[in-house]
Amino acid sequence: MTGLSTNLIHADDSKNRVSDIVTPINVSTTFRYDDDPSLLRAADEGFEEQEFVYSREKHPNQVKLEVIFDEILNGHSVAYSSGLAAFYGLITHFNPKQVAVGPCYHGCLNILNIHTRNFGLKQFSYSEEDLDKLQPGDLIHIETPLNPYGTSKSIKYFADKAHSKGALLSVDSTFAPVPLQDPFKFGADIVMHSATKYFGGHSDLLAGVLVVKSFEIKEKLVEDRMHLGSNIANLESYLLLRSLRSYELRINKQSENVAKIVKFLSDNKKNFKILKDLTHSSLQTEDFVKKQLPNGFGPVFSIFVESKEIAKQLPSRLKYFHHATSLGGVESLVEWRALSDPHIDQTLLRFSIGVEDPNDLINDLDQALSSFN
Ligand SMILES: Cc1ncc(COP(=O)(O)O)c(C=O)c1O
């Protein structure tokens, strides 16, 4: 089997159209029809589609991206204009009548709420009682590791629950992409990622991807995507291709960094008066966690501090963490999460760890937290 880093750099070689080593930026939204009139067929005469016609349907760098995603995500992938566009594609295609959903990215919940408003979609919790109500064709959606805490849920547990009712399990794996976690190995039916985060990795593009196990379903998702107008854009495709080349180096460094930082904070918790708690998969003791994340933990964790006022002040005392939302980029970020999530504990700060020297990040956290002692 070809390794992850080789696939990231070479899986799309067969789709090269020019001899350039770096795939060119391709901005054309439309492509010339055949010059030979005898080859032209009207749509109702069994029009034989040429590869590229209009970029809402398909364009060269999106095809290259999907070839790479197919290899590295172990399924049939469909690229979208954002993570939320991917989730919207999922809900539109599978069209469940009932969804079991718990805490997860609020944008995904907002999409479910639109479906509840427009079509009467029923939403349940993850309680045993609620999961028992699921019917064939329904959906369980989980996010693991979970935003903003960075903690894990057992994919296998939810896969077994869904399948015992003839329902499907979708997993938002944004917080621990390959090689950290492969939800298909634990029974997921659909995997989604906000590729804006780790795959993009430079905080300069929006993209999403859905992965399914069947080519027939991929084809249907692609058809819906064309009608919904949610294909990944030309320029973003170029940026994402560029990013994927170095993805493995970044995610492994980010994962190594977070393990060191969380260990430092956990070992020294008592030394920081304002640090009340911290959450991350590496601190969980359940057996499934290490099995699900065999190659390292996701680079996001959260801390709880003494008060809302301190949570507001801490970001400005850090030198190497930009105070901003989002995650997954090469630069470390901190966010007083109450700024973007109306339902969150206002003493929580979320950290997204980048690829800086971990000792610098640790020293920075040490001085900022100690400054309140
Ligand atoms: C876990 C998770 N899923 C989905 C999304 C939505 O992705 P996008 O911003 O690319 O639409 C986000 C965005 O922060 C996220 O954190």
Question: What does this entry look like structurally?
Answer:
The modification N6-(pyridoxal phosphate)lysine is found at residue 197. One of its GO terms (molecular function) is carbon-sulfur lyase activity. One of its GO terms (biological process) is transsulfuration. The protein is α/β, with parallel strands linked by helices and 373 residues long. It folds into two domains: 4-245, Type I PLP-dependent aspartate aminotransferase-like (Major domain) (Aspartate Aminotransferase, domain 2, 3-Layer(aba) Sandwich), CATH 3.40.640; 248-370, Aspartate Aminotransferase, domain 1 (Alpha-Beta Complex). It contains twelve helices and twelve strands. A seven-stranded mixed β-sheet has the order 1-7-6-5-4-2-3. α6 links the parallel β4 (139-143) and β5. The longest helix has 21 residues, at 247-267. Pyridoxal-5'-phosphate binds at residues 82-84, 105, 107, 143, 147, 172, 174-175, 194, 196, 206, 208.
Which features does this protein show?
373 residues, alpha/beta, Aspartate Aminotransferase, domain 2, Aspartate Aminotransferase, domain 1, 2 domains, seven-stranded mixed sheet, five-stranded mixed sheet, 12 helices, 12 strands, binds pyridoxal-5'-phosphate, PyrdxlP-dep_Trfase, Cystathionine gamma-synthase
Based on secondary structure, the structural category is alpha/beta
What radius of gyration results from the CA coordinates? 22 Å
For the sheet with most strands, the description reads:
7 strands, mixed
| CATH fold description of the largest domain | Aspartate Aminotransferase, domain 2
Helix content: 25-40%
Order of helices and strands: HHEHEHEHEHEEEHHHEHEHEEEH
CA-CA gap between termini: 53 Å
Which overall shape is indicated by the principal axes computed on the Cα atoms?
Answer: globular
Quick check: average pLDDT? 97
